[in-house]
User: Fold these one by one.
Assistant:
Number 1:
Amino acid sequence: MSTDTPNVYLDNGDSTPVFREVVDAMIPYFTEKFGNPASLHKLGLEAEETMDEARASLAGSLGCKPEELYFTSGATEANNLALNGLRLERPDKKHVIVSPIEHSSVLNVVKRWQKEGWVELTELKVDGEGFVDPDSLREAIREDTLLVSIIHANNEIGVVQNLEELGAICREHNVPLHSDMVQTLGKIPFTLNELPVDLASFNAHKTHGPKGIGVMFVRKGLKVRRIFEGAPQEKGVRPGTENVPGAVGFAKAVELSLKNCDEATQKIEKLAARLKEGLLAIPHVRWNGPEIGPNRVPGNLNVTFRYIEGEAILMMMNMKGVFVSSGSACSSRSLVPSHVLTSIGLFHEEAHGSIRYTLSRLNTEEDVDYALEVTRETVDKLRAMTAFIPEEHSERESDHATTFYKKK
Ligand code: PLP
């Protein structure tokens, strides 16, 4: 890559640049205020107080009680702890329900349980845009259902589920609802106290905070057992020395993200509409997921460029300084087609030709215009090397997302 190649980062669904104010807030906790909250001297007590403040600040931002939050190393751990911790508390419950478009840190947990014979697993149906069918949830719940897990906003296609409706169904049957809310934090405001969600997972690095810190929410009254042993940090539920700078940075990042959330969303949606228009003007492109608007997390765009490979597109765009992803970070290093894209009806070759662009409030119109120019050039070059491209819409192309289920 030449030194004057621009760096246009459109992969904010994978990670985001940390706000300068967040870095500034964290620095003292690496240098002067580096104490371990477990120590009984002044530095330790100060660190303990800092953890309490960060927890209270996050609880204020999320709309829950501080004692309902448990710090973890990130959302992967929060998802694993919430699911496994609940199963250990309720070993008599032998059935779980998930959406088929969960992140691997949920899906792989329940698939492993199923493989090891601990539970029966029901995967709900989603429609062509990725919305969970509430009737399929109602029908799936059983007497012995341990939990339902439904991702709030999907990381690949941005679809935002109606947690009010889905959670109300779970409440009717007294079954806890867990939600991976990583992608909505700081982008779509919510109040946990008002949502019928009993367990939830979050991290900092998708919302301009540091990597390596997350939080698990467990509604008061519900019990989750620790999954590894150690000292009694986080009320014994998550042993291990606390990441004090991380907690400070996490709380600050969420506070800042929510402060200007409406303004940021307007800016991001405008950029997204500009990018979408340019992308759909390219021939043989399929739009994946819901329309831009309240049913899609701000800044997420996912398209299929038919007859070419997503990995090749990504690599050529990378050479020109435009950074995107082909599916989610976790599936982008494997040749297995994205389970999310196949769940909404894409053929395998279409899933392989898909690219995700994720914008943040820090992107500009110039970024979008440059990304479009590079995308067009890349697609033209790759298609010029492709043996077969039909003149017209082919039978091999799945229809543009069709919607079967009722939306909010
Ligand atoms: N859940 C979702 C929806 C994600 O997008 C990610 C990030 O890749 C994770 C969970 C995992 O989060 P972490 O990187 O904090 O482990």
Number 2:
Amino acid sequence: MTDTTRRSWLQQQASQAALLRLGVPLMPLLAAPTQAQAAGSEHRLWYRRPADEWVQALPVGNGRLGAMVFGGTHMERLQLNENSFFSGGPYDTTNPKAREGLPKVRELVFAGRYAEAEKLANETLLGTPNRQMSYQPLAELLLVFPGLDGVRDYERSLDLDEAVATTRFRAGSATLTREVYASAADQLIVVRLSADKPKWITADITLTAPHQKSSGGEGQHTLWVAGTSPTVGGIEGRLPFECRLQLIARGGKVSARNGGLAVQGADEVFILIAGATGYKRFDDISADPAALNAQTLAAALARGPEALRQAHREDHQALFQRVAIDLGTGPNGALPTDERIARFAEGRDPGLAALYLQYGRYLLLASSRPGSRFPANLQGLWNEKTNPSWGSKWTININTEMNYWPAELCNLGETVEPLFAMVEDLAITGAGVAQKMFGAPGWVAFHNTDGWRVAAPTDGAQWGLWPMGGVWLVNTLWESWLFRRDPALLRRLYPLLKGAAEFQLATLVKDPKSGFMVTNPSVSPENSHPHGSSVCAGPAMDSQLLRDLFAYAAEAARELRTDRPFARDCLAMRDRLPPDRIGQAGQLQEWLEDWDLQAPELQHRHVSHLYALYPSAQITPEDTPALAAAARNVMVRRGDDTTGWGIGWRINLWARLQDGEQAYATLNRLLHPKRSYPNLFDAHPPFQIDGNFGGAAGIAELLLQSHRGRITLLPACPKAWPDGRVRGLCARGGFELAFSWRGGELQTLSIASKIGGSTELRWRGGQLPLKLAAGQTARFERRDGRLQRL
Ligand code: FUC
């Protein structure tokens, strides 16, 4: 067997095994390969030109180390990142003045003197300093290929299934191939240079870093650069880093030249790249990056390039291949990816939406893996700038949460692990803020955090004075419990939930007008109300988040048979929160008072008060039709023309409103050159990865929803995808599904329970209660116009 036929044979076996595991009838799902599959474009981004700009380069990542691959012919550039590399060093912005300022700010808010409240909050309630540290680029690898003539037949691609970026072209009489991947299994990035003729690899190799203090090499096969993080805003740069490479040349000659390495006439070359920092924890930077890198490279050398590649493939595919999706194909599917994006609106390329979902899964795997304490940041882990937009850190009033929306649904629960780690750290730093700034128990986090896990409010009260960042994070982690029902996960989550709830129980105050218990001060994320500020009391989103938090904390306590009085307090407080209200225009109200229509920015990108519709399920068309109609009213008023992540959120919201056509129209805004760069990175603009993840989750949400004890198949499948099939999506309650549809009608369904349990299945024209034992699969097929259990 050739490599390619062996590979596709292996893939086929893997997907057949997965289908058999799910008990899916093989015939309808293993029909003849589609056009896209035949052309191999199902999982590929590809281009006819090298990248001129960073947002044309292709990302690889192992959850900790990442590279952007430019694919130049005479010069290749790899821009490298390591996800713990932040400016500054351990620091704490807790502001003790807050204890004094807090009661006054509260009074001003309740007196309706919002602008004064905001001013005083800026003086007393913000962290000091009120700026956080930013994520930094690690290093750059440059490869210069002298003497290449007659370059032609160029193509570069990213194969999502192999997790390899490939550049291939002809020069002179040879075909040259360059492959780059980031291995989670061996914790390094590997570059392979090869040719179909011997002695064709000649290259000059240099390694540099924006924060470089020293560099060198050992022998003729190693290069390293080292330095420390920059000092920013008075926070001393103390985090050491090192990036180190090891060359393996087969044939030819290697020599040291101009601080780099020169390879002459080799048959094949491998460059192994390791990167690390001193980061151990937010308050401990004592790791030795040079020693870590030397160890990583020594272990890799001992294993050899072929073993590395195989380990990478197995590790990646075990996760990536859990989901397969086919939304049909069209003529534009055969075009290079940038052209597909430019022409998506023509409606001749349903496969691009499937690719977008799989790219979201690929990016999540590449930027969030167990073993790292850093969840996917605003740019995943890819950043070339020393002063990136919004610090390329974690904005936790939507963006970080959105990053994890596809995680469980798209069968990559493992990727949530670094988010857990970050929240565990925030529960420590946030306990300091709770105590020293609010005199409260538990923990709190506001709208942003950085690599040092800063939990105090930052930037300015207008954005930062939102004591719900931690709440939204734990509510996000709760989703993992809902999907997996893993008792170990619940035990780990419980102290985080409890601490978040304790802070809120202690700090909610009674609204003198309504008598409800509300947050004060707070904001409805980033949206100004008509009274000269965004600072307010009890915005709808806060109450929605708290309704979930208190319910989850009480449920967790009950599951774990602990803390009965605490659980009772949570439920009692839950009853005292303001309910969602419908305002004068029939809209779901954003604030306690009906200010919505007077707000200065009627099309604001944040739709915070729609949290109750998605990602929460407090509002659904079936259970709360009046509130669902009011949410819809907000959607129409706000409009869908917004930032990348704003569009990502709206796709999910339309999906929950079961409006497949509007969701699809919104998806068209995302899969458009204005909101997707040539490398399919989401454009806020600038690049922000949340839109990729929100969009991927949204595409899945159109096909499958599971909340409130029901699983709905094709709840909002747009007409543009009349026929399709999907395998491996997950539903809350520990279910995994495969299903196919034709003419928008469900044809086959296979649902497996991992842990045993009941649910209610719904599809257009039918519903059915279902109870499965652990490991049991139920299969259905449409026969005589009806879905029948086999
Ligand atoms: C919030 C959003 C912005 C941006 C930033 C990172 O402030 O309002 O649109 O996404 O986070």
Number 3:
Amino acid sequence: MKTTVKALENSRQNLFIGGAFVAPASGNYIPSFDPTTGEPWYELAEADAADIDAAVRSAQTAFVNPAWRRMTQTDRGKLLQRLAQLVLEHADELAAIETRDNGKLIKEMRAQMRAMPDAYGYFAGMADKLLGDTIPVNKLDMLNFNLREAIGVVAMITPWNSPLMLLTGTLAPCLAIGNTVVIKPSEHASASTLALAELIVAAGFPPGVVNVVTGNGDSAGEALTRHSGIAKIVFTGSTATGRRIAQNAAANLIPCQMELGGKSPHVVFADVEMEHAVNGVVSGIFAAAGQSCVAGSRCFVEARIYDRFIEALVERTRRIRVGHPMQEDTDIGPLALSAQLSKVESYVASGVRQGARIAVGGKRPQSSDLTGGWYFEPTVMTDARNDMDFMSDEIFGPVVGVIPFSSEEEMTALANDTHYGLASGIWTKDIDRALRFARNVDAGTVWINTYRASSFMSANGGFKESGYGRRGGFDVMQEFSRVKNVVVDYSGTMQDPFVIRLR
Ligand code: NAD
């Protein structure tokens, strides 16, 4: 079984196509690196266009296979329930695999994996609850109704930061409706998705319903998103890649769902408990070492508490423990990629060149225990402006810039002054003000006196360059089904087609 770190260590992992693990046509494999050492720890298959074609064909065959097509909704729900149970049984192993692959904290990954079965269960329960409509058309003896049905083969492309959790919110509803899927996980963190494939087999899904192709984005990902056999693309990743994939989808005239980057505003008013707001801002930006799409990377603080807030934020940030992600007392682990570390360093340097000041952090930690790993200290930058590069681009690292504001109008303008629109947060005891913010901010999620609290039961997604389409909640069932209108004349007659009767 692949569901342990030990089983993956120093191994070569194949593609999962048609219910079996198969070697890539080219025979090529690429290394996946351990972010705590910078060393390779297993190899994943590098899929090329031939492998992608095989995976899509397998999903197409499975889509019309009676074993899947004629399975009742209730039975599809039961399969998802079985998968939920298997994920629960293997939650700790899956968590250890993700931590090894992307360096995120074991305690965070464990919490994610233990929450995932509930999500599978939630969508399993929806399998037999997707209703069509009957339309009361203005004609006698006529039944007009909408059927909701599966759309076909869905391509799902995931990033490295929370591969399985991000996949769950779309894979579970997609399967609940009866679609088939080809998943392309990130080349930087494919191991947990390959492990999930084994659980999908064990749950009893017919072969080809779920396929996993691994490899680089510009080859495997590109071939998948251009393939004419795909009915829809679900992409979670950076805005730049999303833009490219949307062009490929347009060429094939298929819809896509885009879950992209963010530069989320996190607002603090003077009326709050300082300690709570500081904890909120710290969790908003430094959880997962800032490698979170919803990271609150632009912090706006009411001017009259600005100095006190910065002092408290810096003090709290200094107490954050940077360390090995497998240790229970670590607060921040390494960044997942060496390129990510260089990117963070270069944005901090550019911020300083553009006039910002490092209040705390701003460099790699000096501890000898962390040598070789891709670690970066949690960093607070003051004297920031929205037009600085580190404040306008998504860094995806543990860096927050802080800006004071004097009025609600100024704060709203500053918060919305971004190309992104994923998430936002506000700390205030004034409920009217909080709700005005919720109304006025351009973001798919608004957190009031909390941050990062999300649920698969509610719709998650972005505005502006953070994407479109929603993950979570019942409405996601619409995203993975299509409407077919059926018209039945039960009058038992057919009028002469050339005689038009006016009412
Ligand atoms: P990325 O865009 O580099 O890669 C994401 C996936 O796309 C990977 O599987 C990659 O192989 C694939 N890919 C790359 N080029 C491709 C191409 N030309 N065609 C098809 N596929 C291609 O993103 P990343 O660095 O893995 O992840 C970090 C980004 O993801 C951040 O921008 C973050 O904000 C975003 N993200 C968004 C959400 C959300 O829900 N909105 C959640 C998590 C991460």
